[in-house]
Amino acid sequence: MQKITTSLEEAAEAGGHSGRTTPVWRTGAEQPWDPEDLAVAQGKYPTPENIARARAELERDGAAAIERTVP
Q1: pTM score > 0.70 for this model?
Q2: Which of 3, 5, 30, 36 is the most exposed place for a label (fewest CB within 10 A)?
Q3: Shared-domain flag, residues 70 and 53
């Protein structure tokens, strides 16, 4: 019977992260995002204005723009 872990640290110690002692975090920003995708993820219609705003946000903030929306 496998022990149920109560924290990410315990999971890492149990070998849940390929022998790493610290967990590996994944975010939505690990994949490429188009401005249209960001606008829709923010709950907005992909109108030219919303796409332009999302494009500016991606250029200004990079991955942080995505992580704020899709953690």
Answers
A1: no
A2: 3
A3: yes
